Amino acid sequence: MSDESRAAAAADLLWDAWTSGERVAALPDEIRPRDDAEGFSAQLAIGGHAGRTYGWKIAATTTAGQAHIGVTGPLPGPLFERFRHGPGDVLPSDDMHMRVVEAEFAYLMGADVAPDAGPEEIFAAVDGLHLAVEVPDSRFARFETAGGPQLLADCACAGRFVLGPQVSGWAEHDLSTWGTAVWINGERAATGTGGNVLGNPRNALVWIAEDLRRYGCGLRAGELVTTGTTTSPVPVGPGDEVRADFGELGEVSFRFAP
Fold first, then answer.
1. Average confidence (pLDDT) over 89-107
2. If you write DSSP's letter for every residue of 207-251 in order, what string do you get?
3. Which string of b and e fits 62-99 if b means at least 16 CB within 10 Å?
4. pLDDT tens digits for range 156-213
5. Contact at 8 Å (CB) between 239 and 255?
6. The pLDDT value given to residue 62
7. How far apart are CA 61 and CA 249, in angstroms?
8. How far apart, in Å, are the Cα atoms of 110 and each of 71, 107, 122, 123, 220?
9. Which residues are CB-contacts of 24 (< 8 A; sequence separation ≥ 6)?
């Protein structure tokens, strides 16, 4: 079986799990990605099923998150338009497996990032900053033991995403020390700072721009990059009301269907 066929078969199986709600113990040996490159190829193949993307997410940007899923660094994944939501929306709850939410900072790219761009050039390509909440999920029954290549194939635990307001004067703020909090049903469930995201969300942006080069990809104008959770992932369930509080910058609120 060719590498392309293996990636397509892995994508078919994972997309079936995504749409059916069934969970996968592991990809069969004959199509299981053997390294990150093969995992990323399967991720790209899932795009043939899921449709248009509008940017990227980054999984495991905290040391605790990396330890939890058994990887040594972050993982890139796509943001699919079909799973995009806005503040005030009611998100489905019957298809959740991981059942957590994450308060995040998301950069909007205003220009393409050149393949040889350095950190300052990468950040100079940013055109805006949004507040956001990610609702990650996995098609693996035990995502914490799946390993990096399989998690890459699984789109780095991509799920639903709530894009909140754009931040005015965003370039003036030091996000490394900016406090955040997640409230569930009116009770504070977690607090954190932008420093939990590889020390600074800017670092996460630079990381993904450089990491995508490994796979012949890059950041493009108009894409969104959500940089990773600023707090520990917060458990949620059906009917829960979620509010991610970013202090003076604003908030993102929504709820899950009962």
1. 97
2. HHHHHHGGGT----TT-EEE---SSPPEE--TT-EEEEE-GGG-E
3. beebbeebebeebbbbbbbeebbbebeeebebeebbbb
4. 999 999 999 999 999 999 999 999 999 999 999 999 999 999 999 999 999 999 999 9
5. yes
6. 87
7. 22
8. 31, 9, 10, 10, 8
9. 13, 14, 17, 139, 140, 141
DSSP 117-135: --HHHHHHTEEEEEEEEEE
CB 107 within 8 A of CB 225: yes
Q: Give residue-wise pLDDT tens across range 8-17.
A: 999 999 999 9
Q: Return the structure tokens found at 38.
A: 């093969």
Parallel, antiparallel or unpaired: strands 241-245 and 179-184: antiparallel
How many Cβ atoms sit within 10 Å of the Cβ of residue 218?
16
- The owner of tokens 């969300």 is 201
Task: Give the residues across from 241 on adjacent strands.
Answer: 255
Q: pLDDT digits over 36-72, tens only?
A: 999 999 999 999 999 999 999 999 998 889 999 999 9
The SS3 assignment for 113 reads coil
Q: Give 35-75 as a DSSP string.
A: SHHHHHHHHHHHHHHH--EEEEEEE--SHHHHHHHT-SS-E
* pLDDT for position 64: 87
User: pTM, whole model, 2 decimals?
Assistant: 0.96
Q: Torsions phi, psi of 197, nearest 5?
A: -100, 85
Tell me how crowded residue 108 is: count the other CB atoms within 10 A of its CB: 18
- In the chain, what is the straight-line distance between the N-terminal and C-terminal CA atoms, in Å? 45
Distance CA 256, CA 11 (A): 28
Alpha-carbon separation of residue 189 from 105, 167, 220, 233, 257 (angstroms): 18, 24, 35, 10, 19
